Amino acid sequence: MSSYRKEPAKRQAKILVVDDDPGLLRLITIRLRSEGYEVEAVPSAAQALLSAARFRPDLVVTDLRMDKMDGMGLLKELQARWPSLKVIILTAHGTIPDAVRATQGGAFGFLTKPVEKQELLEHVKKALKISGLPAIDEAWRAQIITRSPLLEEKLAQAQLAASSNARVLLTGEAGVGKKLLARAIHKASQWAEQPFVAIAMLDRTAQDIETLLFGEEAEVGLLTQTNPVTVLLDEVADLPMSTQSRLVEYLTESRPTVSPAAASPRLMTCTRRDLTQLMTQGRFREDLYYRLNVVHIDIPSLARRREDIPLLASHFLTEFAEETGTRKIYAPEAIEVLASKDWPGNVRQLRSVVHQNVALCPNEIISAEITQAAVDGAAHRLPSFDDARDEFTRNYLMQILQITGGNVSQSARLAKRNRTDFYKLLARHQLSPDEFKPRSLVDTGSEL
Questions:
Q1: Which of the following CATH numbers is that of domain 303-378: 3.60.20.30, 1.10.8.60, 1.10.730.10, 2.30.40.10?
Q2: pTM for this model (two decimals)
Q3: 323-372: pLDDT as tens digits
Q4: For residue 69, how many other CB atoms are within 10 A of its CB?
């Protein structure tokens, strides 16, 4: 295994530059990038706060005199949100006393304009050295936006799991990012350059799933090949019982959870449902549960990490700005509106609301009123695709059972499913055929 393990990669330091002078902003950016730094440049303090949440800089270089919020205001905001983040203040000669006060208030130092290149680079190197720039490449988790200690604990657990071939079970509510974390674990592993394949269990027949996983005849499945593919079973709770049995057989055929061979496929699973409850109901095999649950990471809901809501909102604003070419920001009161909501749909629901705000707000600044209207309307808008499909399926099954009077054989034929699959659908949607039978048939237990 050691021959395949990647050495920790040193990453570029990230520097956020803030100045409302386009020429100076461009000049400093060019100078820093020429030294190998990763630079993001913005023209205002408000945009700097949004960028810092997404870009996660190691150092901020900001002008002191700016409209609306100046460098001192930005420094205070940055200190409140990221106390260890170093800030260098740029100032004209006439504002040196203010810059001195800024250093007394927590700024790393100040530079006077016009800034000499060598002086700038020396200050930057000193600030980065003191800040303790991490030596490990964190690109694997770049898509996971957080400052929550609770989620950071889960990410640390995920990084440890990535260093082995251990099977990982990811649980959590819909929309928390289970598939996103699965991909992150894959990126952090020594098999990051190999394929990652996610298979959704919902609405797939047992035969389809088994063919994908194990192949048939001369065809090789994902789990039976000799390539180091990573396979994610999405919503493993919906795995058919026959496939559960076959998967248990596969996992018990002397296959270690930590493989010494880099060519061994890796299996990860995720679900939003309670597998222990399904086990007590006889709908999920206990032996399979313990084989899949080698490393269990339960992802916290957004309601349990509210400190991430402003970061995620700003990240989505930047994401949509890149798509549309129009940048918008939230008013502070609007952020308070977002942070006060429970978000039952989690990150996915928050992204949808931010998207709506961007689309409907005519101004650069999104007000609290527009935000509140979107939040209030979230509960009345269309459900997610998965929820809508579940509701349709349940109503469809109820209609068929009503037509056939609870006769499973006839219902299965109408639905063009075999009896076994039809019973699984009924169990998944918690429907009992007896509820639709004439009372006399229910009493005798017969079925036509």
A1: 1.10.8.60
A2: 0.60
A3: 788 889 999 899 999 999 989 999 999 999 999 999 888 889 999 999 99
A4: 16
